[in-house]
Design brief:
Blueprint lengths: L7 H14 L3 H15 L8 H12 L1 H6 L4 H22 L7
Length: 99
């Protein structure tokens, strides 16, 4: 099986289309900025799992209208994050073009 590998130009084009059509981009920017601040050692009252949970709650609002987000859900996010933190930190060190 062969897979198409997008070029940098493909990614730039897709990003442009995303920005034109995605009103929730602000929440992505806020979440990624918080994660960057935390990753570089800035002190915040927000954790990486909380930033990610906020993003997912925003993007999946309809799902969470039917099902309440609970403290145990955040605990699951924290456990997943903590178990993969080393790999996530490695990903943060690379650009998407290097993959």
């Amino acid at each position: 099986m062969t897979f198409y590998t997008p070029t940098l130009q493909d990614l730039i084009c897709a990003h442009s289309k995303y920005l034109a059509n995605e009103p929730r981009d602000l929440f992505y920017k806020v979440a990624t900025e918080l994660i960057s601040l935390i990753s570089y050692g800035c002190v915040t009252e927000i954790t990486v799992p909380e930033a990610v949970a906020t993003l997912l709650l925003t993007w999946n609002r309809r799902f969470f209208l039917k099902r309440k987000f609970r403290e145990e859900d955040l605990s699951k996010f924290e456990n997943i994050y903590n178990s993969h933190k080393i790999h996530l930190d490695e990903f943060r060190q690379k650009s998407i073009e290097s993959y």
